[in-house]
Amino acid sequence: FTVKAAHDYTSDYAEDLSFRVGQVITVTNDNEVEWYTGEYLDEFGMKRWGIFPRNLV
Prior knowledge:
Number of domains: 1
Low-confidence stretches: none
CATH topology: SH3 type barrels
CATH superfamily: SH3 Domains
Radius of gyration: 10 Å
Mean pLDDT: 97
Shape: globular
Strand order of the largest sheet: 1-2-3-4
Distance between the termini: 12 Å
CATH class: Mainly Beta
Structural class: mainly beta
Number of helices: 0
């Protein structure tokens, strides 16, 4: 399923997925209570993936 970012999220951790408000993200794993795993294509067509807080979408 997909979600849309309600807030910006920037992290210094390599395993985290950073994004801007409005980004549509495909959730690939929702087994964690507070985190999703997801992915999206950036403006250059590169796949970005990682974990991100559920409460920001």
